[in-house]
């Protein structure tokens, strides 16, 4: 499926590069050189070049596949280039990665993948590098994907982590973190890694009190598996739906919905009128919680430290930062969650959706696996502990705190909760599983770890604590 040739001339002659491949290149290069977010950069690139339909689907697969398999492709390219890859111009290396994905990961004939990559290299790097691209990609095309994986991956028997890292295109430290979270099972680790390489469907939330799942289903979505507010859009642009445009629904993974629903379902002792979202940006969980709170006559305070994210929270809630919001919303404020700007023991329910590595959403953000590093985990752990401490301080005796991260890394999950509970005797873990009725395979508890390969959701972690 080759996209249409570009009609945009360059330098007085017709360009040999189609707009779909140009869009993919600019996104991959922006990720490589500016740490751009692929989903945002791709949407902008497709709009700018007016790439739609089948060509947009081609550009999307080319972009995401290249970013997802970058580490594995670099191992292959290192055997086809006569110099270290870090000595190549970044533009040339990105063209080689794009070409390799077309040869090994897409149904593009090898001669077409090589020829279009040479044209792309000539356009973005000059005539000299295009000869290198031609020679290297011809070497890549001499073997199929399975032959290359057998060549570059270590033996599973001698090095299972190294083998899975290459075969499933994840950094070794991520492979080992998944294994630890899966009780040492290499077989299930392989299943989790494979699930990360499957594109995630677009999941929507119909905000309680504002939208209905039936409206989303009538627009072409399917009902969700677990959340009564979820709908899955198999095709099309979610932002083209009227319910999304008018703020009655939003894009939100079902795992994220389940975290908010579990907090709302957990039993509390006494009153239930004040709820807190301590790290509310960009606002999806806050909007869901606000709708649930309104149904009970409660109100939610949404807190976000970063002003630009706080504005997204306010938009999701239908209010302005620092202003009393609509039904179910106490307000939206810009504040540091580790330094509460309210009296202790004020709230009945508190959500801490803590900043994390995002290793649980790698199927949605393919570039994140190569962007994160092990050193960041320790830094985030300290912040996560501080936020959870503040959350326990903020909830009243008899109230409940939900600690959640979109990561299965033990340092960001159970070890955070353990670190807090070992320093205080006024809080205790409670079993989170009864607050997620209908969700299968939740393990031995009391905490819950969702997985793409088990539940079809992002790998969200949830722990519930009650203040004594």
UniProtKB/TrEMBL annotation:
Residues 178-468 form the SAM-dependent MTase RsmB/NOP-type domain. It holds the Pfam family NusB. S-adenosyl-L-methionine binds at residues 279-285, 304, 336, 353. One of its GO terms (biological process) is regulation of DNA-templated transcription. The active site is at 406 (nucleophile). GO terms for molecular function: RNA binding; RNA methyltransferase activity. Keywords: Methyltransferase, RNA-binding, S-adenosyl-L-methionine, Transferase. It comes from the Bacteria. PANTHER family: NOP2 YEAST -RELATED NOL1/NOP2/FMU SUN DOMAIN-CONTAINING (PTHR22807), RIBOSOMAL RNA SMALL SUBUNIT METHYLTRANSFERASE B-RELATED (PTHR22807:SF53). Belongs to the class I-like SAM-binding methyltransferase superfamily. RsmB/NOP family. May act as RNA methyltransferase. This is 16S rRNA (Cytosine967-C5)-methyltransferase. It comes from Thermasporomyces composti. The lineage of its organism: Bacteria, Bacillati, Actinomycetota, Actinomycetes, Propionibacteriales.
């Amino acid at each position: 499926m080759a996209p249409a040739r570009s009609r945009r001339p360059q330098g007085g002659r017709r360009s040999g590069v189609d707009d779909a491949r140009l869009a993919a290149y600019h996104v991959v290069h922006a990720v490589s050189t500016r740490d751009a977010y692929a989903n945002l950069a791709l949407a902008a690139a497709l709009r700018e070049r007016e790439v739609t339909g089948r060509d947009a689907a081609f550009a999307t697969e080319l972009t995401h596949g290249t970013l997802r398999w970058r580490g594995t492709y670099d191992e292959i390219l290192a055997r086809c280039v006569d110099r270290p890859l870090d000595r190549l111009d970044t533009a040339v290396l990105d063209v080689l990665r794009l070409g390799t994905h077309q040869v090994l990961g897409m149904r593009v004939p090898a001669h077409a993948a090589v020829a279009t990559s040479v044209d792309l290299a000539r356009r973005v790097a000059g005539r000299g590098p295009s000869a290198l691209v031609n020679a290297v990609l011809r070497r890549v095309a001499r073997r199929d994907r399975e032959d290359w994986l057998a060549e570059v991956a270590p033996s599973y028997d001698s090095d299972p982590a190294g083998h899975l890292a290459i075969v499933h295109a994840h950094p070794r430290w991520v492979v080992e973190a998944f294994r630890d979270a899966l009780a040492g099972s290499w077989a299930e680790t392989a299943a989790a890694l494979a699930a990360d390489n499957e594109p995630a469907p677009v999941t929507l939330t119909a905000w309680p009190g504002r939208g209905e799942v039936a409206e989303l289903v009538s627009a072409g979505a399917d009902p969700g598996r677990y959340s009564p507010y979820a709908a899955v859009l198999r095709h099309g642009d979610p932002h083209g739906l009227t319910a999304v445009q008018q703020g009655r629904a939003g894009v939100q993974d079902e795992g994220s919905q389940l975290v908010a629903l579990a907090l709302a379902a957990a039993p509390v002792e006494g009153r239930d009128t004040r709820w807190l979202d301590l790290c509310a940006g960009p606002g999806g969980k806050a909007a869901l919680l606000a709708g649930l709170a309104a149904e009970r006559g409660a109100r939610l305070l949404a807190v976000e430290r970063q002003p630009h994210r706080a504005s997204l929270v306010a938009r999701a809630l239908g209010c302005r930062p620092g202003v009393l919001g609509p039904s179910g919303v106490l307000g939206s404020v810009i504040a540091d969650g580790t330094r509460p700007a309210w009296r202790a023991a004020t709230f009945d329910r508190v959500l801490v959706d803590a900043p994390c590595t995002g290793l649980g959403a790698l199927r949605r953000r393919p570039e994140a696996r190569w962007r994160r590093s092990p050193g960041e985990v320790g830094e985030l752990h300290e912040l996560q502990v501080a936020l959870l401490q503040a959350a326990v301080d903020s909830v009243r005796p008899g109230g409940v705190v939900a600690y959640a991260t979109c990561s299965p890394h033990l340092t960001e999950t159970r070890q955070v909760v353990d670190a807090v509970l070992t320093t205080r005797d006024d809080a205790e873990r409670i079993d989170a599983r009864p607050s997620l009725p209908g969700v299968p395979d939740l393990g031995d508890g009391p905490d819950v770890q969702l997985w793409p390969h088990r539940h079809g959701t992002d790998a969200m972690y949830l722990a519930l604590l009650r203040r004594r």
